[in-house]
Structure formats: C-alpha cells, structure tokens
Structure prediction request, 332 residues.
Amino acid sequence: MICLNGEGNTLEDVTLRLRGSYPFGYGDLLGKGRPNLVPTSKQGGVRVLGTGTTLRRCKVFNRAFGHCFYIQQGDGIRLEDCYAEGVMRSTNEMLSDKSGPAFELGFRSVYQNRDGRYAITPGYVKALTEDGFRTYGGAGSVTLVNCTAINTRAGFEIGAQDDAKTKTVIENCVARGCERAYLIGSNTIVRRSRGDIAHGPLLYLRGGRDSEVELELTGKAPESLVHAVATIAGENHRVKLTSQAGAASIPALPIMFGFGMPEHAEMSSPIRPAPTKHVTLENGIVDSPVITSSRLEGCKFESVSRSFEDSAFRASPGSWGLPPSGVAGDKK
Prediction:
C-alpha cells in the first residue's frame, strides 16, 4: 500500500498489484469492519491523506479485499487517467464451497437478504475487492478525470460534505462490471461519464444534497440478478440518465425515484422508499420505467419510458377465492 500524506505530492505512472487479505473470495459478505463474522485483514492500494495531492496514470490491479484508490483526508485532490481493477465471483460459486470460512459459517452473511435471513443469497455476483475509487467524510474537494474502474464493488463511491463550499467532480469516467457503478453522495458533479449494469445498478444516489449527475448506460443486459438501473433519493439533486446510441435492449429494470439504496448498498437487501425533495430527473433510457414512491416532495421528472406509482404494485389484485387454509380444494 502507498500512503500519500503531507501537501502538494504528485504520484505518476505507478502500478500496484495487490494480494494477501483474509478472508478472500467472499467480498464483504462476511464483514468489512463491524460487524464481522470472521477476523479480517485488508490490503488497500493508494491511500490519500494530504492536501493538494495529484495522481496521474496510476494503476491498481487488486486481488485482495480493500479499496484501490481511497481518499480519507485533504482538499484540492486530483486523479487523472487512473485505473482500478478487481475481480468478481458469483454467489452460486460461493455456495458450492465445501470448505473455507463461509462453509464453516453455514453460509451466513452480515447482510439481511430479501427473505429476512442473514445468509449468502444465490443469483448475484460480488466483487472480491472493495471500491475502485472512494472518498471518506474527511476529504475536501476531489476531481477525478478520465478514470476507469473494472470489476470492483463500487466503481466510484464518491461524495462531499453536505455543507461543502466546493463541488467534487467526476468527469469522463467509466465503470464496468461492478456491483454498483456509481454510488454518489452530496455536492458531487458527475458529467460525461458512463457505466453498465452487468452485475448491479448504474447509480445509487444515496441521499445527501445538491449533486448533479449525468450518466450514460452502456453495455448489454445484466449477466446476473439486478433489481434496478438506479435508485434516487436526497434533496436538490439534478439527474440525467441516457443510454448509448445503438445499445442493445435491456430488461425493463426500473429507475426507482424516491427510493434509497438498499442497506449498506448490498444488492440482496430490500430497496425501500426514502425522503426525496426538490429533485429533478430526466430519463432517456427507453427500456427503463420510472417507479415513483410516496416519499417524493416537490420533485419533477421527464421520461421517454413509462412511469408507475409504487403504490400500484403494492395493491392487491383481488381475492384468489381460496379457503382460509390457503390451499385450493381444502374444505376445512
């Protein structure tokens, strides 16, 4: 791991190849801090703590559990032409293990799935690393230009403080094959950037305020279980989603407007309505309907696709005419 402290440091043309973490092979399903089901030992790539740090043409090939590039402190930080690459594994393959920590735990997980169980759930693909590019709450303004994340947990998990005076910027960046391409917080501008939904959503706009997001959906239909193209919550955001010209058709996965990301951003956990105020959405993805929640307040949207209210899907279609036991033909 490289740690950049102090002021005005520049790192150029450095390549890191990471190995050596425990456990490895399950992503964050057994824990990533607290709680943990087993002791963990992470291995990170480039850690930034210093103001005025610049990274150019740096690459991290990560085969360990940890972030590739992560910014915990400092202001005026810039990353140009940097590359982060992880590796993915399906939960079906994890559930086929005949030994190892997940097997010994009975395939338990720290995350509650849609069945209400804390268990590894089949059908998904998980990153075995953490995020490609990540900011923490202690960071000031950050600019990422021409950066790429491949097969990481979040391609870009980026946000600034709610009261930040300077916007954090993501420009002309790419996320492919990630659990979630872009997980965005407050006071962040995303422009001329793109990503796919191979293994998870294009966007979680998790809440926060005053972000402007412009993303293009690229690639083909999902290769594993994906529940939404995007979830959008928070206050005073502006969001524009488009699809690449000539892109192949995708299933009618929704853009969920007025919904937060699932808890801890874990795909197998439920997506629930969340407060959403004065947010503007422009949807240019033809195949993706917009589903609106009851938590919208003062919001506007335009869409080339259909739109539905969440309440319509939650209303019962009527009686099945079954006996009290719920079993057809049962006379009891």
